[in-house]
Specification:
It is built from 10 helices and 14 strands. With 369 residues, the chain is an alpha+beta fold. The strands form 3 sheets. The protein has an 8-stranded mixed β-sheet. It has a 4-stranded antiparallel β-sheet with strand order 6-11-8-9, with no helix packed on it. Bound molecules: N-oxalylglycine and nickel (II) ion. The site of N-oxalylglycine (OGA) has 11 residues, from strand 5, strand 7, strand 11 and strand 12.
């Protein structure tokens, strides 16, 4: 496992897929044109590799009685009363839902819209152009792929992704020019927003505002710009299988189509798109360092006969260098509050995450004490 995780291009020859399924996966992957290629070809039946087991598929109706919290950040920077209110709402939402929507967050709408449009322009380029970027190389900062876990998951998702790792080695010229300026501007604004959100989350934990920022949590960010084409048989597959995010924090924007769902009190609840909002999602690593106070929650995306749907997730995953150990923050532990998780290297977390596909159970039990 360790060796496979270190290899630049993972070796899938040992994948557990049945031989005929593996052949179908390889043939599909070799087209390098993703599910958009299938949708454009006008297929009316879903290829077998995308068909999920009935246990993993939504059984309608989804639960309509619950509403994901929407938190207004208007005035939080300079009005102490507004700030206290927002900190309280963020504390409640992070500990019960693990996911909420932010409005009046200060990122100009044209930056968000520009990113979604830029992503759309990329995904709608001729397939020969996109194919040049199609890759599963973990070391490649900018790439396009259909299902990063294609050879690991039990069933594939109806989704293509353009991804970018905003690492120090990122060469902006590697970003496709149809979305380069938009992506760089979006990356900077999301970094600023993540720092503001970390301040509020620190206060919500009773820590000094700069605590979470100061342990480099806003570094190591990478982006997934997803494209969900219209699906011919949406009731048989998913846009994104259920999962918890491999990050401290994820900031997500989406267009108006909807389909994202979050698991709350045993129900799958729709996250209804709010124009201009940013979805904040607590990741597994924040659950660990908040000692379980903040929840990393399961979420998924339904497939849809309508499309395309566009969304862009920015994951803040911390820095892996320097053997830095992350564990429950000392300041929130006491005689009565003992740590629930052991200290871990990010490398260890990501090795466990990368060994499994989406659609499997949370991996946090690997790290509990
Ligand atoms: C993700 C994710 C949701 C979406 O990328 O981790 O959950 O709406 N995306 O695309
Ligand atoms: Ni996610």
């Amino acid at each position: 496992m360790a060796a496979a995780a270190e290899a630049a291009v993972p070796d899938y020859s040992a994948a557990e897929a049945a031989p005929d399924r593996l052949q179908e996966l390889l043939a599909f992957d070799a087209t390098k044109s993703g599910v958009k290629g299938l949708a454009d070809a006008g297929i009316t039946k879903l290829p077998r590799i995308f068909v999920h087991s009935p246990d993993d598929l939504p059984s309608p109706p989804s639960f309509a009685g619950l509403k994901v919290p929407v938190i207004d950040l208007h005035g939080v920077a300079d009005d102490a009363r507004r700030r206290r209110e927002a900190v309280e709402q963020i504390r409640d939402a992070s500990s019960s839902w693990g996911l909420f929507q932010l409005v009046n967050h200060g990122v100009p709408p044209q930056i968000l819209e520009g990113m979604l449009q830029g992503s759309r322009r990329f995904h709608e380029l001729p397939k020969e152009v996109k194919a040049k970027l199609y890759s599963r190389d973990l070391k490649q900062n900018v790439k396009y792929v259909c299902n990063y876990d294609l050879f690991l998951s039990r069933a594939a998702n109806w989704r293509d992704t353009l991804s970018c790792n905003f690492s120090t080695t990122l060469n902006p010229q590697d970003i496709p020019d149809v979305c380069r300026d938009e992506m760089l501007a979006y990356g900077e604004h999301m970094l600023d927003l993540a720092e503001s959100v970390y301040e509020l989350l620190s206060e919500a934990l009773g820590l000094s505002p700069s605590h979470l920022k100061s342990i480099n949590l806003s570094m190591g960010h990478f982006m997934s710009a997803h494209y969900y084409p219209p699906c011919p048989e949406p009731e048989l597959t998913l846009g994104t299988s259920k999962h918890c995010d491999p990050s401290f924090l994820t900031l997500l924007i989406e267009d108006e189509l909807g389909g994202l769902q979050v698991r709350h009190e045993g129900h799958w609840v729709d996250v209804s798109p709010v124009p201009g909002a940013v979805v904040v999602n607590i990741g597994d690593l924040l659950q660990i360092i908040s000692n379980g106070k903040f929840k990393s929650v399961e979420h998924r995306v339904l497939a849809n006969r309508l499309g395309p749907r566009l969304s862009v997730a920015m994951f803040f995953a911390g820095v892996r260098e320097g053997n830095y150990l992350y564990g429950p923050i000392k300041e929130i532990l006491s005689e009565n509050v003992s740590p629930k998780y052991r200290e871990i290297l990010l490398e260890e977390y990501f090795q466990v995450f990368a060994s499994r596909g989406l659609g499997t159970e949370s991996i946090l039990s690997h790290f509990t004490l």
